[in-house]
Design brief:
single chain, 142 residues, alpha+beta, CBS-domain, two-stranded antiparallel ribbon, 5 strands, elongated, CBS_dom_sf, CBS_dom, Diverse_CBS-Domain, CBS domain, CBS domain-containing protein
Length: 142
Amino acid sequence: MQVGDILRKKTARVATIRMNETVGIAAQLMRASNISALVVKDVVRTEGNTAVGMFTERDVVRAIAEHGAAGVNLKVSQLISVQQLVSCKSIDTVEHVRHLMNRHHIRHLPVIDNYSLIGVISMRDISSAFDDETTAATRSVA
């Protein structure tokens, strides 16, 4: 199974936030969309919209734990590592993506094909896909 197979079953909308937005805005976006991660984009006039990282619930918790209530005013860019964007492609296997997530201790990966952000895959998506496969296999045996 490939990442693209999973993305086809998900909504096409990808929730993003700009690097210069605050942790508070990011938390509000995640809450309003009922999601736990946002793709961080750096809007540079010469390069267009470029995915530079992921901002997750863990980042919100870290900001509050380290800075108290003032953590909500920190910029998203202060909490992500833009040098280490881990991503995958739609043709990557689910096994490869699961390995990447385990190795980097992350639960969400942006899916980037030909330098364009096309989606986000999560550990939950992978787990659901395996559950669906198992259910289908069980039905075909019975």
